Structure formats: structure tokens, C-alpha cells
Amino acid sequence: MHNSHMRTTINLDEDTHGFVQYYARAKGISFSAAIEELIRKAQAPAPQPKPEIRRRPDGFPLLPKTGQVITSEMVKKYSEDEI
User: Fold this and answer.
1) Is pLDDT above 60 for 80?
2) What pLDDT, on a 0 to 100 scale, did the predictor assign at position 31?
3) Burial degree of 20 (CB within 10 A; 0-12, 13-18, 19+)
4) Which helix (H) or strand (E) holds 55?
5) Does residue 56 lie within any of the structural domains?
6) Which residues of 27-59 are buried (b: 16+ CB within 10 A; e: fewer)?
7) CA dist 46 to 7, 10, 34, 43, 66, Å?
8) Which of 11, 28, 44, 64 has a 20 to 30 Å separation from 81 between CA atoms?
């Protein structure tokens, strides 16, 4: 991250300007800081949705389908890795 600041001029629609102004006031930050914060939020990767955990009628959880077959050899390998 750079510590220098760049000065620039941007044109905003009236409603966008109003939103940034409201956001800045609500957060107690400057208009410029609000724009920077909103841009950084937009650049952040979207959070991965948590998979829905389904359960069998007896309550046993079912893993989400991934298309990958889990073999007994894989289970054995991962079990050995933990020991």
C-alpha cells in the first residue's frame, strides 16, 4: 500500500454523490475516505457461500456433492497423516 495520496476529479450522479455523502457521515469519515473504502469493498473477493448441510432422516449429516469420489485409500492416507 502506498502512503502517497493522489488528487483527482470525478463526476458522480446525484444519487451516487448522495449515497457516498450519507455513507461518509454515518461512518464519521471524509468523503474521499468513503469513496476509497467503498472501492476497496467492491474489489474484495465475494465470500464463498457456506454449503448447506443436509441430514438424513436419522440425523446423520450428509456432505455436499462435489463430484469427487472418496475412496477407502484416501481415507486411510488422510488418517495416517494425522497420526
Assistant:
1) yes
2) 96
3) middle
4) strand 54-55
5) no
6) eeeeeeebbeeeeeeeeeeeeeeeeeeeeeeee
7) 29, 26, 20, 9, 20
8) 64
pLDDT of 74: 87
Q: Is residue 37 part of a domain?
A: yes
Q: Count other Cβ atoms within 10 Å, centred on residue 24.
A: 18
What does pTM read for this prediction? Answer: 0.52
> Residue 30 phi/psi, 5° resolution?
-75, 165
Evaluate whether residue 58 is within a structural domain: no
55 lies in a domain?
no
Q: pLDDT tens, 11-63?
A: 999 999 999 999 999 999 999 999 999 999 999 988 888 877 888 899 888 87
The domain tally of the chain equals 1
Residue type, 39: I
pLDDT of amino acid 18: 96
